Amino acid sequence: MHIADGIIETPICIAAHAISLALIYLSSRKIDADEIPKMGITGAALFVISLIHIPLAGTSVHPGLFGLAGIILGKRTFPVIYTVLLFQSFIFQHGGLMTLGVNALNMGTGAFLAWMIWKQKFIPEYLKAFAAGFTGVIIPSFLMAAEFRITGYGKGIFIILTVYAIAAVAEAVISLTAVGFFRKVKSDIIT
Amino acid sequence: MLGFKTAGAHGVHIELLIHPPSVTAKAYFSKNAPMAQSGISVYAPGSEKPFQTGNTDPQGNFVFLPDQAGTWKVVADDGMGHKGTSQVEITKSFFTGDEQMTVSDTHQHEHEQQADLHEDHHHEHSHEEIPMLYKIIFGISLIFGITGFFYGLKRRKS
Q1: Residue A63 counted as domain residue
Q2: A39, A41, A44, A46 alpha-carbon torsion, rounded to 10°
Q3: Is residue B143 predicted with pLDDT exceeding 90?
Q4: Phi first, then psi: what are they for B140, rounded to 5°?
Q5: DSSP code of B86?
Q6: What is the distance between the alpha carbons of residues A114 and A136, in angstroms, rounded to a whole number?
Q7: What CATH number is attached to the domain comprising A51?
Q8: Alpha carbon distance A78, A90 (integer Å)
């Protein structure tokens, strides 16, 4: 899901960087000091979890926890995702620096929609946790496939969505488990 | 013995094994995750047009036969957004049969490294990759450092 450099056209990458920086500003406004440690710990989890990769259908997928991040951090998720992707790119050569904005927007959208699902009052909590985890993966992969289609790159939307749907189900289970765990040990960590 | 480097991250790694008259590109995500059936493009020195294209085998290998001296470029791409580039310097001795088998290893998306055929194995080992554990600790330290900085800043303001 981390798009490497040299795939998306440069003007799109620059525009995505600009939008990302604006979103970082908007989503960091009026932040409370007590929210910052939670952002740091969630960021560290996101940073490390991507190292668990699973070979699948000739490619490699890994958990991202974007849905869970959306549940925990809400509107503060985007700066965390952007920072984590920046460090993953620098330290692990995972994704590219030019495509950082595109990757952040893809994954940030997934996390944002996961948060939207999580905020719904009429859905049972276990269902929301599952759906948020699934959304956190499937939406970024859909956006990635759409971008590939625009640039004429890659294996096509059906193959990409099929591969990432498997990963999305796994993440949905992780989110469900994590929410259940948080409710037992520290309920106030999730809003 | 040949020095193979290992890495554990999700980025694309390409090892180039030089065994005249051919070069084998081994593309992988990590030691146990080869880039199977992925697209490979080989570029001759100074050429923008691919010299050869094809797919890796199930173990992530692809063999090609350079026909001239110079810097050859290999690009591996799985069509799912994972792409890596590697370069190798082929000298004239490659074609005279004086060359010994050696290995060049890169592990980056866009940064490109070169390995000279005349480099001995001690030199091959001299730029060993930083261990994955150190990278993880470094990354987490950075994240916690930034968190602490902004937390302190916000606390002082309030």
Answers
A1: yes
A2: -70
A3: yes
A4: -65, -40
A5: E
A6: 6
A7: 1.10.1760.20
A8: 18
The pLDDT-based confidence of B52 (bands split at 50, 70, 90) is very high
Q: Which of B93, B85, B84 is nearest to B18 (CA)?
A: B93
Average pLDDT over residues B99-107: 59
CA distance B34 to chain A (A): 8
Whether the complex's predicted ipTM is more than 0.85 is answered with no
Give DSSP secondary structure letters for B98-110. Answer: -PPPEEEEE--SS
Euclidean distance between CA atoms A89 and A83, whole angstroms: 10
The range of the structural domain enclosing residue A51 comes to 10-184
Q: Residue A91: inside a domain, yes or no? A: yes
Q: At what angle do helices A100-119 and A66-73 cross, to 10 degrees?
A: 60
Total structural domains within chain A: 1
Residues of A in contact with B135 (CB under 8 A): 91-92
Note whether residue A1 is domain-resident.
no
Say yes or no for a CB contact (<8 Å) between A1 and B139: no
